[in-house]
From TrEMBL:
This is LysR family transcriptional regulator. It holds the Pfam family HTH_1. Belongs to the LysR transcriptional regulatory family. Signal peptide: none annotated.
Amino acid sequence: MSNFHRKRNLPPLAALPAFEAAARHQSFSRAAEELHLTHGAISRAVAQIEERLGIDLFVRRNRRVWLTPAGERLFKSVVTALDGLDGTVEEIHRHDSASPILSVSCEPSLAMRWLMPRLGAFREANPDLNIDLRLAGGPVDLLVEGCDLAIRRADFGIAEDYEVTRLWPEFAGPVCDPNCWEDILVRDLSNARWLHSRTRPDAWDIWRRASGSNSSPASEQYFDHFFFTLQAAVNRLGTAIGPLPLVYDDLLAGRLVAPYGMAPTGYDYVLITLDRPGRDPRILRFFDWLMAEAKGIESGVVPQD
């Protein structure tokens, strides 16, 4: 006889992650911190399971907890079940190569100043693949955020379980409006207003070390985001450190000049994926297109108008 319609005798499933964390830490407080819940929420979740089973899962004494024999048995089963679900979800995500949507997480400044102006051409060449672009920087959790890949400036630690593919090294140098440079007395950086970003406050120091410059500013101005700093340079408010590829199009169009050229910053832009790009034909197509679009950037070549 089939058990397909058999009613399962299970405890509240939504409470199981709270029980698993409490059992693993042997602490309701530490479980609450991990899951960003209150101590009371963990306690209520465990109580729901105990009420459903009719047996204590923890021994509670002096604000400490220990698993009972029944709790140990349930803990082992819950860990196996949650690990199995996690693995299945990851496998589905890793191998959904037939999806017509490729979710891409990208550094905001790179996305707005370089990637987005080129996505129309990618769309024309790949009409069957839609790019779902998410703007985000720093560490990424591809599974939690539902992204297939991330493009990042590798200035932070990346978890070892990710595949990291180098795209191109970063080169940077002082950039400003051509007329602004003409107006600077004897074209000396020490006579310029230096533009800074609070999200990348060491940009000028990195360039000075890389180039051997000992210049210092006549005046300074700060902006909340690197994107605004570069736009301020376009708008003749001063001189900013402009990395390739973020200022590539502005240099090519003559909106900016890089009078001192570009020097390597020591950082790379990278592609972060769950597997090697070649295992997903969608990612491989996007990766190959990225590298074709980035010709010249990897050598620090400053485009000329």
